[in-house]
Input
Amino acid sequence: MPCVGVNNDFWVFSKAGRELGDLHVNYESARRYPVKYVGDKFTLDKLNDEDLRLEKMKFGKKTDGAKNIDDKTTVVYNHKITMTGIPIEAYDYIVSGRPALEWVMERQRIKLDNDSGIVNDANDWAIETMGNARYPLELFQRVITVSLETMKIVNALPPLVIHEGVGKDVEQQIDCAITDITEAV
Output
């Protein structure tokens, strides 16, 4: 069992853990990231529930030489809504091997389960459960904020010092802790 150093950095990690816990538990109340919308005089307030209906979010495209590639700073929500100005750094926060934003894009859509024949429709869930047809759009914006804030907190952490090979018994764990406390003073 490795021995994690005990020093002044403990409180830095403790504070960061609390901030991350609060941020992630309360993701639905996080500030919506201020994306830009494509279109002349576009106002989200003038759209009705049908205008907000989504099939599947997709990345915008950009040209790289002779081929089109995904432009992750742009997401096409539906035929009426395209978001731009998404910071590329927001894709640095990884959940289960993929960026959290891509997870949202994958889950917030209409999808037929071939085995059961059940249609999973994010629009129905947004309206019936959340009472808000804008929920998938707002969730995407909130996850941008959560992703950026998560990486800001994590990147500000000092290196974690782990004493390898120490801690095979209680006496070694105590020695490790005493050494770290002495060095911190």
Summary: The first strand starts at residue 3 and ends at 4. The mean pLDDT is 87. Residues 9 and 160 are 8 Å apart (CA to CA). Helices lie at 9-25, 100-107, 122-128, 135-155, 170-184.
